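Case study 2.
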Amino acid sequence: MNINRRSLSTAALLTSLVLSGAAFAKNPDVGGSAMFEEKNIVENALNSKDHTTLVAAVKAAGLVETLQGKGPFTVFAPTNEAFAALPAGTVETLLKPENKDKLVKILTCHVVAAAAMAADVSKMAMADGGSHEVTTVGGCKLKLSVKDNLVMITDEAGGTAMVTIADVKQSNGVIHVIDHVLLPKM
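Prediction:
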């Protein structure tokens, strides 16, 4: 078999591309789409078909620029199903311009000004006797705990969300997909 240098260089390049692609494959898919560590929270969320309601809410609240910022941020990202589980008409009402302040409050209760991986949350909860309280950028107090190796979040209203996809690394933090919308005390 006769292999010339050009073929060898092409093969090496293809191998390099495949291997570098494998490095990005460490992030779990979300909403049927790959999530890339070099993209920011908003860029990745835009690609998730499971987060179209969250993206619309972030746009309506004027938080796109913030979540594209340097960070680091931990975002607990509710799915479309989580928003659909709210009482009928809630999402539509929150998306109205006159309810922007309320929407901002709810959305910022899903963001912590730090990059916390699930293992970090687990260590903090264990060190604090089973649950760890964090304050979000919206001023909400969330209780983070771990049950059966799953991160659980209790909001100020007493609701509980479970992290269904953990540790989705972003260029400016991390996303944890959750199954319920976190609510502040109103």
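Helices lie at 5-24, 41-45, 52-61, 64-67, 80-84, 90-94, 100-108, 118-127.
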